[in-house]
Design brief:
Helix content is 48%, strand content 15%. It binds NADPH dihydro-nicotinamide-adenine-dinucleotide phosphate and (2Z)-2-iminopentanedioic acid.
């Protein structure tokens, strides 16, 4: 799909020229601009007031050196980033990603998406994202700790519980959040809710660990129900085997689905009778091992060493929960051919634009990341609330709130799609609903 609106098309050109080589960022911006065509035609004030020009430009980008000492006494150097994209509706909020593929373009795409996602939650959080090209894989606990301490020594100057509140993402789980929090506390001498995804012992929220995966399934169930269906008795394929994938699998199973496959970056497991999540949690969460270990415990399962092929498994529901652009046109064709009825994105931007187009053209129910995976950040905002009032809520309270939020995101996205003449297109609906709240806040605060 190309941009028909002349202004949006020239804006896209500008984004490409001014952010050279950042293809993931271009992809994320293009999708939003495409969705906004009917909005700016109806509301030219967004163009007149420069709202779009502002929203595609981060308020601030922080880029820093992260030197740390490895177990052999050598100094290693990584790059750290924090993109503070938008504070129109609340303090910057978004995760930190530690993965060798991280560069400015990845953090910008993630930060940009976060603006609209956070807006959809209905909670007062702006958009931000950060990370490093540090690879936690194969590092000792002490190496990870020294890296996190060095990373936070710099980042601490730029964040705060009313300024910018990071959390986890790929490669950043409760271990990393713990080391980051410890260092923040030490260098600022404050105990505040400056990070979310903390362990329960020192201010974390119950249900935050489960929230992205559970939220994804609450969203998917709402989408299915609206179309006369449910998770019950459905075969489900989930890519990834990290935080999002594990808890998506748990909730999909609780809702009556049968999860038959999971993956990591090296391969996938297929277990016809249903994946045993207890084994997966031991392998991934406790032992930090590769997924191939699963077949040692369950010899009746299969392991295949190409993670991409996971989409060739016949399923009713597909939940990509690993990483960006992991599901392309060919994968989409395969899913459609095999009778898949719904796809919902747990990862950020996991489907390529061509794959999304195929899903929409073939009436596959499609839940885009910004809407479908917002449960994690929504629960982070609930963690911030609990920290602010120095109180903790029970698991059932947080989980119930999460479910309400996800159902409301579904309704908002669906209603916006219909209002702007694209009924059923939740990609457009989520982008539009997310945008309008931020855009109006920007105008009221005097954008230009
Ligand atoms: P984890 O680090 O816990 O797990 C990531 C999983 O994805 C692992 O199984 C990993 O495999 C796989 N993976 C990562 N990179 C690649 C790659 N390049 N190719 C193939 N597989 C890959 O991260 P999360 O579960 O937290 O995050 C997964 C996705 O969900 C990301 O897109 C993230 O941005 C998104 N997300 C996360 C939220 C959260 O709260 N954590 C909230 C909303 C979205 P391996 O171990 O082999 O690297
Ligand atoms: O992509 C995301 O929404 C996250 N990684 C969670 C961010 C957060 O602040 O909880």
């Amino acid at each position: 799909m190309s941009l028909k609106n002349e202004y949006l098309s020239s804006l896209m050109q500008r984004v490409i020229e001014r952010n050279q080589g950042e293809k993931e960022f271009h992809q994320a911006v293009r999708e939003v601009l495409e969705s906004l065509e009917p909005v700016v035609e109806k509301h030219p004030e967004y163009i007149r007031r420069g709202v779009l020009e502002c929203i595609i430009e981060p308020e601030r980008i922080i880029k820093f050196r992260v030197p740390w000492v490895d177990d052999n006494g050598y100094i290693r150097v990584n790059r750290g980033f924090r993109v503070q994209f938008s504070s129109s509706i609340g303090p910057y909020k978004g995760g930190l990603r530690f993965h060798p593929s991280v560069y400015e373009g990845i953090i910008k795409f993630l930060g940009f998406e976060q603006i609209f996602k956070n807006s959809l939650t209905g909670l007062p959080i702006g958009g931000g994202k950060g990370g490093s090209d540090f690879d936690p894989k194969g590092k000792s606990d002490m190496e990870v700790m020294r890296f996190c301490q060095s990373f936070m020594s710099e980042l601490a100057k730029h964040i705060g519980s009313y300024t910018d509140i990071p959390a986890g993402d790929i490669g950043v789980g409760s271990r990393e959040i713990g080391y980051l929090f410890g260092q923040y506390k030490r260098v600022t001498n404050t105990f505040t809710g400056v990070l979310t995804g903390k362990s329960i012992e020192y201010g974390g929220s119950l249900a935050r660990k489960e929230a992205t995966g559970y939220g994804l399934c609450y969203f998917t169930e709402a989408m299915l129900r609206d179309n006369g269906n449910t998770f019950s008795d459905k075969t489900v394929v989930i890519s990834g085997s990290g935080n999002v994938a594990i808890y998506a699998a748990e909730k999909a199973t609780q809702l009556g689905g049968k999860v038959v496959a999971l993956s990591d970056s090296e391969g996938y497991i297929y277990h016809k009778n249903g994946i045993d999540l207890r084994t997966v949690k031991i392998i991934k969460e406790i032992n930090r091992q590769r997924l191939i270990e699963y077949i040692k415990v369950h010899p009746d399962a299969e392991y295949h060493d190409n993670c991409k092929d996971i989409w060739s498994i016949k399923c009713d529901i597909a939940l990509p929960c690993a990483t960006e652009n992991e599901l392309d046109e060919n994968d989409a064709k395969m899913l459609i051919k095999n009778g898949c009825i719904a796809v919902a994105e747990g990862a950020n931007m996991p489907s390529t634009p061509e794959a999304i187009q195929l899903f929409l053209d073939n009436n596959i129910l499609f839940g885009p990341a910004k809407a479908a995976n917002a449960g994690g950040v929504a629960t982070s905002a609930l963690e911030m609330s609990q920290n602010a009032i120095r109180h903790t809520w029970g698991f059932a309270t947080v989980d119930a709130r999460l479910k309400e939020i996800m159902e409301s995101i579904y309704r908002k996205s669906s209603a916006a799609a219909e209002k702007y003449g694209m009924k059923g297109n939740l990609v457009a609906g989520a982008n539009i609903a997310g945008f309008l709240k931020v855009a109006n806040a920007m105008m009221e605060q005097g954008v230009v």
